[in-house]
Amino acid sequence: MFASIGVETIRTPIRSPRANAYAERFVRTIRQECLDHLLVVSRQHLESVLDKYVQHYNQARPHRGLHLGQPIPRSLPLPPIDDGSVTRLDILGGIIHEYERAA
Fold it and tell me: Which residues contact 97 (CB under 8 A, 6 or more apart)?
């Protein structure tokens, strides 16, 4: 499938975490921040949890490699900082919290 769009695939050695450090780091992050705090009961539940976490990971979680930015920034611009209140949005039943300024 990748060859059809011009992407060259490279096979990595089995059980060598340094061969694909980005994927290994993502797996470690998702386990520490999400899966270690949940009891997953089925494949459908796991897929639902991972979908919500990946959305949080790409759109709300700060990344040091991006100077605390997100890979997919939110489309709405942030309002100017004032003395307004802050609202908290619970993700995955409160395991993860996202904060936004109230309108």
Answer: 88, 89, 90, 91
Supply the DSSP symbol for 94: G
Q: Model confidence over 1-33: pLDDT tens digits?
A: 777 888 888 777 877 767 778 888 888 999 998
Contacts of 95 (CB under 8 A, 6+ apart): 33, 34, 37, 38
Residue found by looking up tokens 């780091």 in the block: 25
Residue closest to 62 by CA, chosen among 95, 23, 96, 27: 96
Q: pTM, whole model, 2 decimals? A: 0.66
SS3 of 62-93: the string is CEHHHCCECCCCCCCCCCCCCCCCEEEEEEHH
43 Cβ neighbours under 8 A, 6+ residues apart: none
Quick one: angle between helices 43-59 and 21-33, nearest 10?
Answer: 110
